[in-house]
Amino acid sequence: MPPQLWGGLECTVNRVHDHYRDQIRATGHHDRPDDLDLLPDTGICALRYPILWERISPDDPARCDWDWTDQRLDRLRQLGIGVIAGLVHHGSGPAYTSLVDSGFATGLARHAAAAAHRYPWIMDWTPVNEPLTTARFSALYGHWHPHQRSERTFWLALLNQIDATRLSMQAIRRVNPAARLIQTDDLGRTYATAALRDQAAFDNLRRWASWDLLCGRIVQDHPLWDRLSAFGFQDRLRAIADDPCPPAIIGINHYLTSDRFLDHRLQRYPPHSHGGSESQLYADVEALRVLEPPPQGLEGALREAWARYRIPLAMTEVHNGCTREEQMRWAAQAWDMAERLCADDIPVEAVTLWSLLGSSGWNTLLTGEGAYEPGLWDVSGGAPRATALLPLAQALSPPRDRPLLAGGAGWWQRPVRIGHPPVTRPAPMKAHLAASQPRFSAPPLLICGATGTLGQAMVRACALRNIPFLLTSRRDLDLSAPSRMAERIEHIAPWAVVNAAGWVRVDEAEAAPDPCMTVNAQGAIALARVCQDRGIPTLSFSSDLVFDGQQDRPYVEDDPTSPLNRYGLSKAEMEQGIGALAGRHLIVRTAAFFSPHDEFNFAADVVRSLAQGGHFVAADDLVVTPTYVPHLVATALDLLIDGEVGLWHLTSGTPLSWADFARRIAARCGHDPARVRAVPHRSLGWAAERPAYAALATRRGAALPPLAAALDHFTLHLPPHWARQAA
Question: pTM to 2 decimals?
Answer without folding.
Answer: 0.93
